[in-house]
Specification:
Blueprint lengths: L9 H9 L7 H11 L4 E4 L6 H13 L11 E4 L3 H14 L7 E4 L5 H10 L3 E4 L1 H9 L10 E4 L2 H6 L3 H10 L5 E6 L4 H10 L4 E4 L4 H6 E7 L4 H14 L6 E4 L3 H13 L4 E4 L5 H13 L4 E4 L14 E4 L6 H8 L9 E7 L4 H11 L33 H8 L6 H7 L20 H4 L13
Parallel strand pairs: 1-6, 1-7, 2-4, 2-5, 3-4, 5-6, 8-13, 9-11, 9-12, 10-11, 12-13
The structure holds adenosine monophosphate.
């Protein structure tokens, strides 16, 4: 189906054409007609599916009638992170190139004054993180009674970040009669409750995760001792040995570790940047811009940075830590292997990570291939698995072949289960390691670091 069948306005269609898009993605084809019909919509879709345009394009069409009044935005889009908010703003600039609409971005880490000025002039579109929006509201700079369309994006991320009370409060501040567009990659019970409370007779539109991600990403699990210094040495070895590494995102579980690892990589001559929630906003945007432009090729990041960043063609993702939420693994490795390109996702696992690895394998429905031992590995490093004879790094065990035989099916609802949240169900097939922690993951690794290492 071409875009022209979607009843979008000529101005919007010409911007879509300029963007080079021919056909709408499934979420766009399904959601746009409902949005144009003024229906409330629940979109179950993750980033990379084209979901941003699925609300931005019809909103632009609807906004062509009417104009903004001072301090009374006409539409409000809530995003969990500053980066996502900035990306949605970019989308409005791109698709709204034929419109004269005022877009205001209210995010933390930048001064209130400039944001106040934009609000005073009247915003057609207000894109905000919940905390900063409520700050402006409490300072009396903002009235939400003129909001015609409310978009809540990445709702499950909002839940993870503790924003649900803020969202509930905001939903009560906007008019009851507004149209609500609600997007989430998964629908845990807390999110379902929210939609039941604040949406009116919504239509649900669901698109599967992009299967291409799982199929084009080569996954590998590499073992290390728990010592951070050893883990850093393993990471450097993997980065140096990686074939076709053009740029990489390295994920850490804790912000503190992002900074430590970033400094260590810099000391070792890597062209690296760091991205996590505690950094100054300007610094985060500048780092991201440098990474996009290829000025730096290694980005050390926390999970907050993982969601929604549209960075094309990342060749490698490294998990410096195994994520404790299985779903974060899917999001992290989704940064590579995008749009049919090949990618590598290499995860460093310590003996303490067994249960997290098992949870991930259960979620993705396949075992993660283990790395064969390198010549320098001590016997304690070696996974107790049957392996082929080559000792070279990067060759993978039989599990790899099994994985190819059985492509991943990580649907949205599956990831919801994988989040765990106290649910146990004995009916499901145990995949990979199941709940069993193999002995090799529990054994300490004795591997003295080379004396030349400074960190
Ligand atoms: P999103 O899921 O909104 O983060 O979008 C993911 C990527 O898909 C972005 O780079 C968009 O520019 C791109 N995109 C969105 N809609 C289309 C489309 N209809 N055809 C091709 N690319 C698209």
């Amino acid at each position: 189906m071409p875009f022209t069948d979607l009843a979008l306005s000529p101005k919007v269609l010409s911007a879509v054409e300029a963007a080079g898009y021919t056909d709408p993605t499934p979420i766009q084809a399904e959601a746009i007609p409902h949005v144009l019909d003024r229906r409330d919509v629940i979109g179950i879709a993750q980033t990379g599916t084209g979901k941003t345009a699925s609300f931005v394009l019809p909103m632009l069409s609807l906004l062509e009638k009417g104009r903004a009044r001072a301090r009374m935005p006409r539409t409000l889009i809530l995003e969990p992170t500053r980066e996502l908010a900035a990306q949605v703003e970019e989308n409005f600039t791109r698709y709204g190139q034929n419109h004269k609409l005022t877009v205001a971005l209210l995010i933390g880490g930048v001064s209130f004054e400039e944001q106040d000025r934009k609000l005073d002039r009247g915003a057609d579109v207000l894109i905000a993180t919940p905390g900063r929006l409520l700050d402006h509201f409490e300072r009396g700079k903002l009235l939400l009674t003129g909001v015609e369309i409310l978009v809540i994006d990445e709702a499950d991320r909002m839940l993870d970040m503790g924003f649900i009370p803020d969202i509930e409060r905001i939903c009560r501040l906007v008019p009851f009669t507004r149209q609500t567009l609600f997007f989430s990659a998964t629908m845990p019970p807390e999110i379902q409750k929210l939609t039941g409370q604040f949406l009116h007779n919504p239509v649900s539109v669901e698109v599967a995760r992009r299967a291409s991600t799982a199929e084009t990403v080569r996954q590998l699990l590499v073992s290390s001792s728990t010592t951070p210094k050893d883990k850093r040495a393993v990471l450097r070895r993997e980065m140096q040995n990686a074939s076709n590494l053009s740029n990489a995102i390295i994920f850490c579980n804790r912000k503190r570790d992002v900074s430590t690892l970033f400094r260590s990589l810099q000391r070792h001559g890597f062209n690296a940047g760091a991205l996590h929630g505690d950094l100054d906003q300007r610094e985060r945007m500048a780092t991201l811009a440098k990474f996009r432009a290829g000025e730096i090729n290694t980005l050390v990041a926390s999970d907050v940075a993982a969601r929604g960043l549209d960075i094309p063609a990342v060749s490698h993702v490294f998990n410096f830590d195994v994520p404790s939420h299985a779903e974060d693994y899917v999001h992290r490795i989704g940064r590579t292997g995008r749009a049919g390109r090949e990618g590598d996702a290499i995860t460093i696992a310590t003996p303490a990570d067994g249960k997290y690895v098992a949870a991930i394998e259960k979620l993705i429905g396949q075992p993660i291939p283990r790395q064969e031992p390198t010549e320098t590995d001590t016997p304690a490093d070696r996974p107790e698995e049957k392996r082929a004879s080559s000792p070279r790094r990067g060759k993978q065990t039989e599990t790899r072949t099994r994985r190819q035989d059985r492509p991943a099916k990580a649907s949205g609802s599956k990831s919801e289960e994988g989040r765990g949240r106290g649910k146990r169900d004995s009916d499901r097939v145990v995949v990979g390691l199941g709940d069993h922690v193999p002995q090799f993951l529990l054994r300490p690794v004795r591997r003295p670091a080379p004396a030349s290492e400074k960190d």
